[in-house]
Amino acid sequence: MDTILLKGKPVRDAVFAELKVKVAQAPRKPGLAVVLVGDDPASAVYVSHKEKGCEEVGFHHVTHRLPADTPEGNVLDLVGQLNADPAIDGILVQLPMPRKINQEKVLGAVDPAKDVDGFHPVNLGLLVAGNPRFVPCTPKGILRLLSYYDISMAGKNVAVVGRSVIVGRPLSLLLSLKREDANATVTMCHSGTRDLAAITSAADVVIAAIGVPRALGTNEIGKGAVVVDVGINRIDAPERPKGTRLVGDVDADALKGHVAALTPVPGGVGPMTIAMLLENTWEAMAGKEGLDENG
Ligand code: GUN
User: Fold this and answer.
1) Domain ranges, ordered by start, for the chain
2) Cβ distance 265 to 231 under 8 Å?
3) Is the distance from the beta carbon of residue 273 to the nearest atom of ligand 1 less than 6 Å?
4) Which DSSP string corresponds to 96-116?
5) Does the fold of domain 137-270 match that of domain 28-111?
6) What confidence tens digit (pLDDT) does each residue in 183-197 have?
7) Which residues pair with 205 in a beta bridge?
8) Which fold, 28-111?
9) pLDDT tens string 15-56
10) CATH 3.30.565.10 matches 137-270
11) Cα-to-centroid distance, 283 and ligand 1 (Å)
12) Is the torsion defined by CA of 274, 276, 279, 283 positive or negative?
């Protein structure tokens, strides 16, 4: 079986092109503020990609880099200032935060109207209610990617593996909504799931978001399935000049020829997350300025 690679780049490029046109016609630039606490190397890479994305589409952006030992109160003060700043439409608090900081408290302090990550309880609640405002970027990006490649979720059995607040849980909710790009039958699997392989191997679509390198292979995924790999794991690769390489949560080499479609790592879901962050920031500004959705 030929396996179609669901590349994110063309979809991301289309979203960026649309945003550039809208920004050129807008009364002002949308503004995104990123709060990065600590020195997690993966977070530093993600944040630099977000900054580059803002540059490319012409958004105003600021990144606040704070040391790992910053007191929680200072982070909350900064969020308060950003909430009050009229040039800032979207606020992203990069996760994970250092352990000493209460992540829920910080996410809950973001003005829900600027919560472009969709992690505030109000926005998560609206998603549960079936009336989402800001949808978390990776779940939104996965739906957009599947739509672009004309892969319908309607009526499909989808196994979502992983229940994180960033991906698995909001994605499960989103996929179950009664709307054109979703309407799936969703099974949420996690570390407490008994006989994971029995569920995933029977699914039409498997979405892997567990952060374990190459955990799912041909025993866990059925022939002809559609596979979305959300994992970005760095593993040792002595044969590479850098000594490491990125792999996903599925064994892509084993699945090529076995499944109908697969998102590559890197270059699959990753570019979509950034595109959706910028789109959400645009929507935050458009909402504030009373623009219609096309600007
Ligand atoms: N860390 C990993 N992915 C994400 C994301 O989408 N948003 C935030 N804020 N932090 C992350």
Assistant:
1) 28-111, 137-270
2) yes
3) yes
4) SPPTTS-HHHHHHHS-GGG-T
5) yes
6) 999 999 999 999 999
7) 158, 226
8) Rossmann fold (3.40.50)
9) 999 999 999 999 999 999 999 999 999 999 999 999 999 999
10) no
11) 19
12) negative
Q: What is the set of active-site residues? A: 50, 94, 117
**pTM for this model (two decimals):** 0.97
Residue with tokens 């709060």: 35
76, HSE (Cβ side, Cα atoms, 13 Å) = 11
92 lines ligand 1 (CB under 6 A): yes
Look at the alpha carbons of 204, 207, 213, 215 in this order and tell me if their dihedral is positive or negative.
negative
The SS3 assignment for 53 reads: helix
Kindly give, in sequence order, each residue whose CB lies less than 8 Å from that of residue 187, ignoring residues fewer than 6 positions away.
Answer: 157, 158, 159, 160, 199, 203
Residue of 92, 106, 107 to mutate, ligand 1, most atoms within 8 A of C-beta? 92
Enter the DSSP assignment of 223.
Answer: T
CA 272 – ligand 1 centroid, Å? 13
Segment 53-81 mean pLDDT: 98
Task: Give one DSSP letter per residue of 248-290, joined into a string.
Answer: -SB-HHHHTTTSSEE--TTTSHHHHHHHHHHHHHHHHHHHHHT
CA-CA distances (angstroms) from residue 175 to 125, 225, 289? 15, 17, 30
Residue 131 per-residue DSSP state: -
Residue nearest ligand 1's atom 9 by CA:
94
Q: Look at residue 291 in the predicted model and tell me its pLDDT.
A: 84
In angstroms, the CA 132 to CA 9 distance is 26
